[in-house]
Amino acid sequence: SWQVGSVKITCVVEIVIPFPDGTLLPEATSEALKASPWLFPHFATEDGTLIASVHALLVEAPGLRLVVDTCIGNDKPRHLLGGNPLATPFLQHLADTGWSRDSVDVVVCTHLHVDHVGWNTMLVDGKRVPTFPKARYLIGKREFEHWNHEGDEEQQAIMGDSVRPIFDAGLAELVEVDHRISPEVRLRPSPGHTPGHVSVMIESEGQSAVIMGDITHHPCQMAHPEWATSFDSDTQVATAARAKMFAEWADQPILVIGTHYAAPTAGHVKRDGEAYRFEV
Prior knowledge:
7-stranded mixed beta sheet
């Protein structure tokens, strides 16, 4: 966990996924990665495997308990997992931090992909019910409008079991991409990965942090902002967003938290020649 002024941010890991050489980012070969020795040992292995994490970030600000992104979730067969459902102790790990499902005030999904909405709901007696029954679920208006009508069969299944039940329960709130959640926490538009993608900015007592969402999936993209995954809706826009934000954060005292970065997960962006590196 990290302290940013009066705000505490805690990482709760669901699963860690190794991506063999070139599978997450085709250009991130073992040879190409060796040019960035700072990636080892936390974020990559010598054989070119990229290490990625799926986790939620708990943000405790004055008067606010916020969950940012809710991972994949249990009991939901997904292509990402070879069609198999997860059965992880994620909720126990949440409880271990001192949070309960009832104590969450707000949930934010940076976007509506499989690994960011899963624990919006849980299976109880064969029915999908809100995991956080007392929370407001903030979902980007543009993001919802896009995926409500677009996407393949899998994406529609995700909407059906992880997003629409929240609306049915009356807990969803469609918000703009620059919505302010509290005096310390606001959304920031960062489209490209998906049309309505947002990041979460935290500012308190002169200190700052950002939860990136999927602007970037792996720290190697700091060395190569032009490297893109097949998951990006608009590669050109996503690449431009990465380059713009890395330039803005470089050499600044802003804690940058990767939504898929393996532990230690958070650090600072530093200029490194023509590009950047992640200093942890």
